[in-house]
Amino acid sequence: MTSASASASAAADKAQDSTAFRVAARIGYVVLGLLHLLIGVIAISIATGGGGESADQSGALGQVAQAPAGMLLLWVIVIGLAALAVWQVAEAVAERDPDAKKRWAHRAKDVGTAVAYGAIAVTAFTVVSGGRSDSGEQTRTMSAQLMATPAGVVLLVIIGLAVAVIGVAFVVRGVTKAFMKNISSPGGTAGRGIRTFGMVGYIAKGIAVGVAGILFLVAAFAHDPNAAGGLDAALRSLAGLPFGQIVLWLVGAGLVVYGLFCFARARYARM
């Protein structure tokens, strides 16, 4: 084989690997959509007086595990989200915005997103390996451990503020439709539907994440680690607000819409 042929063969292999990885990452978006759809359905169930499951990743993964071929689906979730996490890290490394502040802001967002995807993948791996995962309990345990350290309350406040800011960022991305920058949207009704689903979904998720951040702050200032909680605690706390059942139903429906948006994102995301 000549050097030119060897180079061509290596390039072809690299292209095939890249294509396979893109497919895996797109599957990750499908998985993300499925999880948000399940979380939204659980939240709606809680709002209507049912809902024994946790309205978070743990609850959604538990629902998947109970389904036919549930273990196989969990492995698909692990692989898809792991690929999506790696893809986000690659996006952070490849970021080339000429504005240094924007470049590092984009990198921080990509890395933070990768960590979130990786955390869900680890949770799914725990479930598929026969372990038990309770996101809310883990959050409360972490908060208690932090409070036991000298600077624990300060760290908890920082975490709460960071999570709340992420929630606000989701809302802003929804209102401004900034998420469309990374999507090759089709025209016509399909394109308008994707924009609408994305806007509604991002705002709903932002509200849920923002409330989770507020719970961290409440836990810090009240010196009560039990006040902290993940997405499930955040959604359930909405039910305690005036017209809370309606608010929770709307947020749950919004999370279902976000899940549907993720399905479209799997098809049209620029990768």
CA-CA gap between termini: 33 Å
> What's the alpha carbon Rg, rounded to whole Å?
20 Å
Elements, N to C (H/E):
HHHHHHHHH
Number of helices: 9
The count of strands amounts to 0
The structural class is: mainly alpha
Quick overview of this protein structure:
This protein is mainly α and 271 residues long. Helix content is 79%, strand content 0%.
Characterise this structure.
Mean pLDDT is 82; it is low at 4-15. α2 (57-66) packs across α3. By secondary structure, the protein is mainly alpha-helical. It has helices spanning 3-47, 57-66, 70-94, 100-128, 135-147, 152-176, 188-222, 231-238, 244-268. The longest helix is centred in the N-terminal third of the chain and has 45 residues, at 3-47.
Q: Descriptors for this entry?
A:
single chain; 271 residues; mainly alpha; 9 helices; globular
Itemize the secondary structure elements and their pairings:
Layout: H1 3-47, H2 57-66, H3 70-94, H4 100-128, H5 135-147, H6 152-176, H7 188-222, H8 231-238, H9 244-268
Helix pairs in contact: 1-2, 1-3, 1-9, 2-3, 2-4, 3-4, 5-6, 6-7, 7-8, 7-9, 8-9
